[in-house]
Amino acid sequence: MSLQTRYDFTLPRGYVDGQGVVHRTGTMRLATARDELEPLRDPTIDGADDPRLTVVVLARVVERLGTLDLVTTHEIEGLFAADLAFLQDFYGVINFGTQAEYEELVAAQREAEAPVTSSVSAPASPPAPTVSADAVGSDTGAAPDPTRDLAGALPRPGRSAIEEIPRDGR
Q: Is residue 141 part of a domain?
């Protein structure tokens, strides 16, 4: 059995280059210790809390983006926020996650890409918000569980904010 070290991905939106070409597919390799340490020596990085650290690390591990064989910080900085967030999640899953988490991320990506079929009709009114049983009739005064949405379901995997490497480097 061999170790998979390269993973293909598809960005939610895509990188638009200077000629207007959209690049959505790419390849990311597993990160090495050097990939995480060397950027900390970069004079443009002010430490482990510098938001640019993410950009530099991703530029090191994204090997291909569309027809671009060389991905630099310029391309990573030019990504839409949704694409940057996706790459951060993808990086975390392939480097630190389980095979099940990887498969879940890929399945969620395929689901998001699935074409939506609809017929043309009168606009529908927005659905009424659903509220979990925990939020209805509660006299305890306790705040609702923040890990659940209004319907009581767990949120989709991923993060709710951009995460950085802690100051102590762990």
A: no
